[in-house]
Amino acid sequence: MYALVEIKGKQYKAEKGAVLTVDRFENQDGEALEFDKVLMVADGDNTKVGAPYVAGAKVKAVVEDTFKAKKVKILKFKRRKGYLRQKGHRQQFTKIKVEDIIGA
């Protein structure tokens, strides 16, 4: 059984026991999360597609870890002008583990 779920404007395929890397949540490690914006639930031959969401379907997950991605370097440069600007950015992510999928 799996579900397509919308988390912070992005779509993820959630299966029971799967670990998803999503944009950062403020929740502490071990806290439970519940997502009700489920776009589709598939269980073998039975498939429910929402318009836009499946009514009564939920995905329950637990926060495992919050971490930063590798640094992305931003560089502005103009040749022969002595102009060089460097910046860096590290995006923050949260790992969540899918505990259960409730399909209506």
If you had to describe this structure to a student in words, what would you say it looks like?
The structure is a single chain. By secondary structure, this protein is mainly beta. It has one domain (2-102). Helix content is 0%, strand content 64%. It contains no helices and ten strands. It has strands at residues 2-7, 10-15, 19-23, 32-35, 38-43, 46-49, 58-68, 72-78, 83-89, 92-102. The strands form three sheets. It has a four-stranded antiparallel beta sheet, with no helix packed on it. The protein has a four-stranded antiparallel beta sheet with strand order 3-10-7-4, with no helix packed on it. It has a two-stranded antiparallel ribbon with strand order 8-9. Strand 1 and strand 2 (10-15) form a beta hairpin. The chain is elongated and about 65 Å long. The two termini are 13 Å apart. The model has no long low-confidence stretch (mean pLDDT 95).
